[in-house]
Design a protein that fits this description.
single chain; 169 residues; mainly alpha
């Protein structure tokens, strides 16, 4: 009898959203900026509190710079290998982060050894104040950068690729 068509009041309200939110996407530039800024700010604050000019300079150069460089290299490598290394996605999150954090610290130790050895041979060490601090700065920066990059990358990737046991419930 009454075949009146009423307009649907909820069309715009309940629209289908994207399954992956933009907050979970891995933007390399954001991660590199965060990997540079976090250690540089913290070390800079420490340098201001203790009035240590060497720490203030090191915060912007060896601490922040090393962290940003390692974050850029590791983030680029992880993005290029995103779908190919399934073991990185299937392994538990904390294990992957701990593994890359240890590798970043070891890479930092290697970079400190190369830097102090090469610069020590080319320039007398007593002229370079920054060379003495690289043994702490480089491994710590590598650890921090690797942790930040791997944590953010893993969060972004697990939304794209489900774990192997998710569909078998």
């Amino acid at each position: 009898m009454n075949k009146m068509n009423y307009p649907n009041q909820t069309d715009g309200t309940y629209g289908i959203k994207s399954a992956v939110s933009k907050a979970n996407e891995f933007a390399l530039w954001r991660v590199v900026v965060m990997a540079y800024a976090a250690p540089a700010i913290m070390a800079g604050i420490g340098g201001l509190v203790t009035a240590d000019k060497g720490l203030q300079l090191g915060a912007l150069t060896t601490i922040g710079g090393t962290s940003g460089l390692i974050a850029l290299m590791l983030g680029h490598w992880l993005q290029s290998r995103e779908g190919r290394n399934r073991w990185l996605i299937d392994t538990p999150h904390l294990v992957v982060v701990a593994m890359f954090a240890l590798a970043g610290a070891l890479f930092g130790l290697f970079a400190a050894w190369v830097t102090s050895d090469l610069l020590g041979d080319m320039i007398p060490v007593n002229y370079l104040d920054l060379v003495g601090g690289v043994w702490i700065d480089f491994p710590l920066s590598g650890f921090i950068a690797s942790t930040i990059v791997t944590w953010r990358w893993r969060l972004a990737v697990t939304t794209k690729f489900p774990f192997k046991g998710d569909g078998k419930r």
